[in-house]
Amino acid sequence: MYNESYHGLTDLSNKSILITGAAGFIGSNIAEYLLKFGAKKVRVLDNLLTGFRENLEDFMSQPAFEFMEGDISKIEDCMRACEGMDVVCHQAALGSVPRSVKEPQLTTLHNVTGFVNMVHAANTNGIKRFVYASSSSVYGDEPNLPKREERIGTPLSPYAITKYSNELFAHNFGTLYGMEFIGFRYFNVFGPRQSPEGAYAAVIPLFIDACLNNKPVYINGDGGQTRDFTFVENVVQINVKAMFTQNPAALNQVYNVGCGGRYDLLQLFEGIRKAVGIDKKPIMREAREGDIRDSQADISKAERLLGYDPKFDFWVGLEMTVDYFRKLNG
Fold first, then answer.
1. Is residue 252 part of a domain?
2. Does the global pTM surpass 0.85?
């Protein structure tokens, strides 16, 4: 991937970037882009709680790459990671709505305390630009579609609350410390390196893994719930643009990151089933607590202020993701 550059005229050869959580699939894809286009230093901070060292294996031998095992809930690890960096790209979080319902304290520790620790460390080390991952879950019970940044409801899960708190802290810290924050409300990101393992795996890798390996496919609820599924390279694009934008109007803002489409889970399953080439039926079960029923992004703000231009629609990204998992399965 990454045959097209997204960083404009910025010379990456004198830029040192810290990516937190880059053993996860989004962060590792951002690291891949920055290394491919010649960043001076790409440092990764990850505790490997939900990320995987194998996501970084291809980079370990590159002189510009540095892996630092550490935890954002520990301020000393954050301070060490920020030394000598120019930009922070903060992707580290404890994801999953169901996990946050089950473990709200742990989710808050990583997503709120960890966020504040990283901002404090960045500010102490003189880093101004801080790009971070929020979530479309902050829209909560707001019923209107598509979702627009200025119009949110009440969050429906502890996870959503932690992500909204990040946005509030960023707004406050930008004013207090003169830092430059850009936050992203991700809409159901999928793609290569996303793990199908564990109790809280995302739906697309779960479905693909099940179809490739003749496992049962479970759909929570009636399958009519809709999502704006977003291929990971679109997410890499906007993170890179945000790290290096020179547009002052783009700073201290939060943006939707999606494709503007809307697909239900039955459509998703059917697309995966056909791409894999099998005849299979899903098993329906009860809906999950805290889940939003429908989701779709209005991406016009990101297009206008950051030049966001998603190159990969849902179906193209889905084919590429199925191909990736097929190769992993041999």
1. yes
2. yes
Helix or strand or coil: residue 190?
strand
Q: What is the CATH number of the domain that holds 273?
A: 3.40.50.720
Which one of the listed residues 159, 164, 186, 255 is annotated catalytic?
159
Q: Provide the number of structural domains found in the chain.
A: 1
Distance CA 118, CA 130 (A): 9
Domain membership of residue 3 (yes or no) is no
- Nearest to residue 137, comparing CAs of 166, 109, 114? 166
Known catalytic residue at 2: no
Residue 87 falls within a domain, yes or no? yes
- Residue 152 belongs to domain spanning: 14-328
Per-residue pLDDT of the chain (330 residues; tens, 9 = 90+): 666 889 988 999 999 999 999 999 999 999 999 999 999 999 999 999 988 999 999 999 999 999 999 999 999 999 999 999 999 999 999 988 888 999 999 999 999 999 999 999 999 999 999 999 999 999 999 999 999 999 999 999 999 999 999 999 999 999 999 999 999 999 999 999 998 876 667 889 999 999 999 899 888 888 888 999 999 999 999 999 999 999 999 999 999 999 999 999 999 999 999 888 888 888 888 877 667 788 899 999 999 999 999 999 999 999 999 999 998 876
Q: Is residue 5 part of a domain?
A: no
DSSP 14-51: G-EEEEETTTSHHHHHHHHHHHHTT-SEEEEEE--SSS
**CA quadruple 65, 231, 321, 29: dihedral, nearest 10:** 0
